[in-house]
Amino acid sequence: MTKMGSGIAGWAGLAVLLLALSDHADAFSPMHGGLRRNFIGRRPMQCGTASMRNNRAAPRMNLDPNTEGMVGSDQDALALMVNDPVGSFQPVGGNKGIVARKEDLTREILSFSLPVLGSVLVEPILTLVDTWFIGNQLPMAMGDIGLAALAANCALFNLITTALSFFCTATTSVVARNSERDPDVVGRSIVNGVFLSTVVGTVIAAGLVIARTTILSTGFHVAPRAVKVASDYLMIRALSVPATLANYVGTGACLGVGDTKTPLYGIIAATIANVVGDWFCVCVLGWGVAGAAVATSVSSYVGALVTIELLRKKVKTKWRGVPKLAELKPFLSVSGALLLSAVLVGFTYSMTTTVANSGGIIAEAASHQIGLQTWWLFSFICIPLSLAAQSIAPREIAADRSEVAESLVNKLIGMSVVLSGIVGVASWAIPTFCPGTFTRDVAVAASLRSITFKSVLSQVLMTVNCPLDGINIGCGRIFQHISAGALSSLAAWVVFSQGVGLQQAWTAMLVFAIVRTFVNLVSLPSLYKKLRQSRPEAGVSVPIGAPQGA
């Protein structure tokens, strides 16, 4: 089998694996002692007291400037609103004892995380497909320039998708809060979300097309030889932004109604479309890097359309004209407290590409593209654990089961440590044993191997960090979450200011991971203390998000 044939077979295998995940997503369902999902038209099992359910139906969110985020029911309300599909993963039998509830946690985490994994991998997989085709199917010299051009574009789109991921969070919140009470509101919310994502995506796409040369040359320091190729790619890929944001809305709506399988079908469709499109546009038509952009843009729309169309079969939607500003407010306000951290992290990742490109060496820019995209792909693997923390922790805290919340924290940390070891081995093996996977250039492969240590260590640390971020958000510790993002980004920017080139970029990435890990770990003892103080037997109730000594 040729290298091209084996590559396409590999991507097809990935699609089959994702399909298998979707087919077995119910392995932890009620018949296996697991969990019930909350679909539209199917009343969920309730968990906790009546007052707790009322709080879910109408959560409050009032910032107290004297605390680290939210206090009392306010901190629970924000945590419940952020990626908490109300009742989506309720334990069977609402009055289980603490011990039985703890035993359910592992199944609940897995039932949430496995299907969600596919939906969060769509963007990095599409980019990785482009990277493989450009690195292997173009002439060597053109392939290196193509990878350098792709590096800046991928950094830019990573920034955009990270900063605007609140479309998924906000949609999940709005849909979840109305899924049981008013299906019509759910349908209207989805339509409003798609409308807003289309408008915002179109504005961003227009801006990218108009200012593409300035963005690439000034913002990302793309080498002169690669500017034209990078500009062509950006002009075409910019057209996919509305579809990407609409896919966020569709995925968020699915999670809001407890449907974790539909997003997987979307990513399978997008992956297949991208592989076939890359082969046809790059190899058959000979369009090169621009062909990869065409394939990715088309596949983004395929994925979004599949997700939303399947969702429409479960949720009644109807276009009733341009929504009023008041109807759009939920999408603009729910994730405001988290937007700053997302933007900071997105800029930091983008800056690594700017610094790597500033050295002016095409081989370094090409190797950075390969290294960053494989790093980016592996970094998404732990995101489902973060989302599980954001979904489960607030329910346990609101139900006065802080002991269960503490057990959840321990399980997530343990899972992240195991997962970090697996991810570390995989990220080390690719440049060590398979340096030619994404390039045939010996110089690019050697450059990629030179950053292996920094890449692997930062990957391992960030795999542990991601669930810790989710734990902080789920427990209402928004101040700690923002602090970790701000301090780690600041440390990375200090390193960025000290030099240019590939090594400097990955040194900054490693420093970013170390500082973020340190800040998150330092804050853990106070979290454990607050959780233990808030147990009913402790005789005192301490708001989880409140300062020490409150």
Protein architecture, described:
The protein is mostly helical and 550 residues long. The chain has 22 helices and two strands. It has one domain (3-41, 66-538). Strands 1-2 form a two-stranded antiparallel sheet. The protein is globular.
Structural class label:
mainly alpha
Strand order of the largest sheet: 1-2
Percentage of residues assigned to helices = over 70%
Q: How would you sum up the major sheet?
A: 2 strands, antiparallel
Q: Give me the number of helical elements.
A: 22
Total number of domains: 1
Approximate strand percentage: under 5%
What is the molecular shape?
A: globular
Strand element count? 2
Contiguous low-pLDDT stretches (5 residues minimum) are: 14-96, 545-550
Rounded radius of gyration (Å): 23 Å
Mean pLDDT: 74
Alpha-carbon distance between the two ends: 66 Å
Element string (H = helix, E = strand)? HEHHEHHHHHHHHHHHHHHHHHHH
Compact overview of the structure:
This protein is mostly helical and 550 residues long.
Key descriptive features of the protein:
550 residues, disordered C terminus, mainly alpha, 74% helix, two-stranded antiparallel ribbon
Question: What is this structure's SSE topology?
Answer:
Elements lengths: L2 H21 L11 E2 L13 H8 L14 H10 L8 E2 L6 H23 L1 H16 L2 H24 L2 H13 L4 H28 L1 H8 L4 H14 L3 H16 L5 H23 L3 H25 L12 H9 L2 H22 L4 H18 L3 H16 L3 H32 L8 H8 L2 H23 L3 H19 L5 H32 L17
Antiparallel strand pairs: 1-2
Helix pairs in contact: 1-12, 3-17, 4-12, 4-17, 4-18, 5-6, 5-12, 5-13, 5-16, 6-10, 6-15, 6-16, 7-8, 7-11, 7-14, 8-11, 9-10, 10-13, 11-13, 12-13, 15-21, 15-22, 16-19, 16-20, 17-18, 17-20, 18-20, 20-22, 21-22
